[in-house]
Amino acid sequence: MATTGAKAASVEAVLDILRQHPDATAAEVAEHAGIGRSTASRTLANLETDGRVSRRRGKSEAGGRTAPDRWTLVFDTPADRAEPEQPPVTEEESAAEPADTTDPASQDEDHDGQAAPPASATTDTATAEATTAATGAIQPTSEDTGSPRLRPGALRALVHAWLADRPGQEFTPTKIGKELGRSAGAVGNALVTMTDAGEVTQTSHKPRTYRINSNGDQPASGTTEATAS
Fold first, then answer.
1. For a designed S-S bond to 187, which of 71, 151, 173, 214 qualifies (C-beta 3.0 to 4.6 A apart)?
2. Calpha distance 176→184 (Å, rounded)
């Protein structure tokens, strides 16, 4: 090869300078590489013969002078292809740009790009509405049971509905109160009122047990009863 006589160090130095300073003259290559101008010119000529660099000849200038030739790498080998250096990623940049692992398709599938609302929201709202409708307006909490106080007549309606779902069965005020989350005393008072109204029958005195009458009427919601806890 034509470059056999050139020192390997000079060849690599010239190639490295052309990677950093393309379209440089022989004088500029010599200056940057720290080699003699004659060595740079000879090395460039040999590299041109090898097809590793290309020469752009200088044009004639005013006064009969000719501009110096300029040299550029020919990227025909992997070694001549210098990859641009990527700036290192700092820890601050990594922390400022967390990876987004959300799958857009999972959001768009059923909600047109909007995130699906929590499934429990609708259920909780329906439960709250049903409780309010069954118990009426809620008053301050009972100190004994921790349950909200009911308006006069509301506890009687709850007891009546609970017994109506269990016709022919006998229950104590304690059992009914436990099932409804109310004090046994308040339930017992409601049962006394319901017994006087013919809605239920007291089937035993010790222990006190009651059952719904088959023809028991739904108590009026305005009937006053003791709700003390």
1. 173
2. 8
Tell whether pTM > 0.70. Answer: no
List pLDDT tens digits, range 118-136.
555 554 555 555 455 555 5
Domain locations in the chain as residue ranges: 8-78, 143-229
pLDDT tens figures, 55-98: 998 888 777 788 899 999 887 555 555 554 555 655 555 555 55
The class of domain 143-229 in CATH terms is mainly alpha
Q: Please answer whether residues 183 and 229 qualify as being in contact, where contact means their C-beta atoms are separated by less than 8 angstroms.
A: yes
1.20.1070.10, 3.40.50.10150, 1.10.760.10, 1.10.10.10: CATH of 8-78: 1.10.10.10
Q: Tokens representing 220?
A: 């009026």
